[in-house]
User: Which sequence fits this backbone?
């Protein structure tokens, strides 16, 4: 166990023997009253890599506010064992449930979840299956159109290679220096298997109603055009927020940045009240 700025940080594995996940637990600061806990659900692929520093900042800030925080790698991603190409959304939902159980066993009080990008979709799906429901979900820029998301990954793949080689994609393609990205396949350095791609293509909406029916409070941060795509839902437990500032986490220009989207931390702290 390491100590940073008065807050305890530990690394451990959890989950079933066949689906081990690596997680980092940051305990709440002893200098403030305890305010429950947060599970941080990461996005996937390059987005996970490029938001890693941001997730560390979120964890530190929440710990200073009295929260125990668990951030983790899904099985088959980053520091967790397993093969990338063998994974699926359904599998990662199981990992999210295991993370909730892991934190709940060691952190009394209400547990909230935060998810960004595809991590928000996984959190929403997992919340419909927990034995004990999280008190609040904060969903930041979830995926509403799976086909459009896959297209953005392929576009990001082309843009990154064009930037790396210093030439337009069409020119590189004509010269035989690159090949068109395909899913299933390797896109932006992440191996996407057929089960994952099939499940992504089925994402056509954001199913908020099941979580609301279970009594959770939802804060959902979306771009203006995404809000227009939501089905009409009237609930005092649903709080919609329009994201004004966009960060392209698929771009290498975002690599290593610890900048937290301006309103993300504010929405997470508001979930503590």
Assistant:
């Amino acid at each position: 166990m390491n100590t940073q700025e008065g807050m305890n940080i530990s690394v451990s594995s959890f989950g079933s023997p066949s689906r081990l996940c690596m997680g980092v637990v940051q305990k709440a600061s002893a200098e403030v009253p305890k305010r429950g806990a947060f599970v941080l659900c990461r996005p996937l692929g390059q987005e996970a890599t490029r938001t890693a520093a941001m997730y560390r900042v979120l964890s530190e800030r929440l710990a200073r506010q009295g929260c125990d925080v668990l951030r983790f790698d899904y099985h088959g991603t980053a520091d967790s064992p397993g093969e990338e190409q063998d994974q699926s959304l359904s599998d990662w939902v199981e990992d999210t449930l295991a993370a909730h159980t892991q934190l709940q066993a060691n952190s009394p009080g209400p547990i909230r979840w935060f998810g960004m990008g595809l991590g928000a979709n996984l959190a929403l799906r997992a919340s419909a299956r927990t034995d004990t429901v999280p008190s609040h979900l904060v969903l930041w820029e979830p995926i509403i159109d799976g086909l459009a998301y896959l297209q953005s990954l392929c576009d990001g793949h082309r843009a990154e290679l064009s930037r790396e080689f210093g030439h337009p994609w069409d020119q590189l393609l004509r010269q035989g220096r690159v090949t068109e990205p395909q899913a299933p396949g390797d896109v932006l350095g992440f191996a996407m298997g057929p089960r994952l791609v099939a499940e992504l293509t089925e994402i056509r909406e954001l199913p908020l109603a099941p979580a609301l029916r279970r009594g959770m409070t939802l804060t959902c941060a979306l771009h203006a055009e995404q809000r227009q795509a939501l089905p009409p839902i009237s609930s005092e437990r649903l709080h919609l927020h329009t994201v004004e500032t966009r960060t392209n986490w698929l771009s290498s220009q975002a690599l290593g940045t610890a900048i937290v989207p301006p309103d993300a931390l504010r929405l997470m702290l508001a979930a503590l009240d």
